[in-house]
Structure formats: structure tokens, C-alpha cells
Amino acid sequence: MGGLTLVGGSKGNVVLVGPASNPKGATLISPGEDPTKPRTSLLPAGCELLSPGDYLHILCMQERSFGDRNLPEPGELG
Amino acid sequence: MCPDNGFDIDTLLDEVVTLPSLPDSVAKLTEMLDDPSCDMKAVAAIISGDPAIALKTLRLVNSAYYGLGQEVTSVDHATVLLGAKVLKNLAMTATAFECMKTSATHFLTHSVACGFAMKSIVLSGCIKGFVGSEDEAFTYGLIHDIGKVILEEYMPDEYAAVSALVEAEGIPWYQAEQRVIGVDHAELGARLAQKWKLTPAVVNAIRGHHELSKCEEAHRELAANLSIANQMCSLSGYLAHPKNTTLVLDETYVAAGMTCETLPGLTEQYFNLHGSIDELLSLAG
After folding, report:
1. Probe site for chain A from B114, B124, B261, B263 (most A CB atoms < 10 A)
2. How far apart are the C-alpha atoms of A38 and B192, rounded to whole Å?
3. Among A17, B24, B44, B53, which one is most buried in terms of CB atoms within 10 A?
4. What predicted TM-score, i.e. pTM, was given to this entire model?
5. Could you report the predicted ipTM of this complex, rounded to two decimals?
6. What gap in Å lies between CA B210 and CA B200, rounded to an integer?
7. Whether A70 contacts chain B with CB within 8 A
8. pLDDT tens digits, one per residue of B252-280
9. B212 at interface of A, judged by CB pairs closer than 8 A
């Protein structure tokens, strides 16, 4: 899970549980209209709240953490 | 030793750095291909006449990456199978590998990965103004950081100071180069591309891949896409330097015409090419 600034300036969080090929691989948690009820949306459906740079970061992190193409794992030397 | 306020690019090129020449064979090939009626046998003869480039070109042609399904034993055969333009890209790739043969593995890996990222961008149709092939795009990604190879060769002490500054302050590599040397690898790489008579689009894209403002307006889309390709490599674990950070502004994505909607397809293309990185690296040495 990681925090990020959403389009518009509010803060959100992303939870990664699988690769991008898994429709439920990433969830975005953003402020809802009711501040006590955060809004959750699966990516890529909720990507309109993200900057392209942050979304690229998420897609790469999903592949590195959960993908089967043997990209360097997060924390490994580039 | 750098002057106190660093070099300007012209002084650096006059006094310290000699840009490598494009091999005669590749330079002649580039000239010949400007003529649509060029003789294919003459094209093959030029490459065959340069053993180092011919050997590397044949190794590339026979790699699984090109997947021709048959062994190609001569440059004549390669020319017939692939056509002169593809062969020129292969020869350019071979030349770039020759320049980078003493570079650290992580730098080479980053360069090859960036080649694949650029190829993916073209295959995904993300660069509307790009008229070249995906193989050309690969070459541009491959050489985008070639200015670093030159700086490291001619200014090893200053380059070590750049690395130390990046580590100490966490600033992007090109900014550390500007502070320590006065000139960054993007400008030097652009001068090399100019010397190699690459197109103005490529020269500008290399010059502007960290700072779009340094690129002529007409070529900013390609420069922006090169910048994103560079970031994609770093985010997928292929950093040019272990402590390197890449910073790509939102305006770069706008200039590239890239949105969140295009990214999943693009990254899939890129990740699918990842399996070929090691093979191409083995051909670089």
C-alpha cells in the first residue's frame, strides 16, 4: 500500500494485490463526498484520479511485485 | 579538471572530448539509403567491408529477438531478407553497442530496456508524429544516454563526482552533471547524434529528454516520449545508475499525448519485450 496525491490535490492510497492483468489487482482509495466514507475503485477504472506518471509507477510496481516476466523486484539493484 | 563555472559545450568539445565518428561503413550506408534506387549488393558490400560491424550485425540478425527462423551467414543474405533500412538500423545498433562495450552492465541494461520502451511506444501508436519504424525507435532509445559513455570515458574523475553528488543530494543525474561539469549527457548525446547525421527529430529528442524546453517545439512529442520511455525503464527496475532518480513532469505526458488510458496497453507491450533484454545484452559485448 502506498500514498499519493490525486488529481485535484487530495490524498489517496493505492493497494496492490496482484498484476495489472488481474482486474482486482489494484484498488485506489480516495476521499468520498462523505469524509467518513472513503471511496474505493478498482484500477484502471479509477485512473482518472491519477496523474499518468503515478499510474505508470503503479503498473510497473504491479508487474515487478506480482508479474511473471521476471522484472527486477522492488528493492533490488536496478 | 573543470573550470570553476564548468565548461560550455563548445569548449568541452574543443578542449576535452572527441566525439566518436560513425564508422565509415554506416556513414556510407546512410548516404546510400537516401537514394531510393540504391543497389542492394552495394549496401551489403559496404557492411561486409567492416568486419566488426558486419559480425555484430549478423549476430543481431541471428538472435531469437529477430526470429527469422533460419541461419543467416552473410550480409548479402541479411540484406535480401530484411531490406536495407532494417539493415541500417541493425548497423546503427551494432555501432552503439560498440561504443558502449566497456559500460557497466546496469547502464547497458537500461539502454537496451529504453530501446524496447521506445519500440513499445511506437507499436502502441502513441507517437502520432513519428514516421519511422519501431526498429528505428529502438535505436533512439538505445542511444539516448550515450553522452554518459563519452563523459565517463573522458572525464572519469568528474564523473565520479557526479555520482557522489547524486548520492549525497538525491538530485537527477543530468542536474549533477550540469553542476559538476557544466554540460549534461543529453546535450553531448545530441551533438553526437548531429555528428552521426541522425535526423533533427532524434537530435532534438536526445537533447530534450530531460528538459523539454531544450528541444525545438516541432520535436517535443518525440522528446517527451523518450523521456517517458526512460522513466518506464527506471520504474521497471532498470536504472541507468543505482542511485539515479528520474523526474517526469505531468506536462511531459501532455506533450507526449499520453494519458492514463493508453498506459496499460503500452506497458503490456513493453513487459512482453522484456524477455529479449538479456539476449541483446549478450550481443553488446
Report:
1. B263
2. 53
3. B53
4. 0.92
5. 0.91
6. 17
7. yes
8. 999 999 999 999 999 999 999 988 888 88
9. no
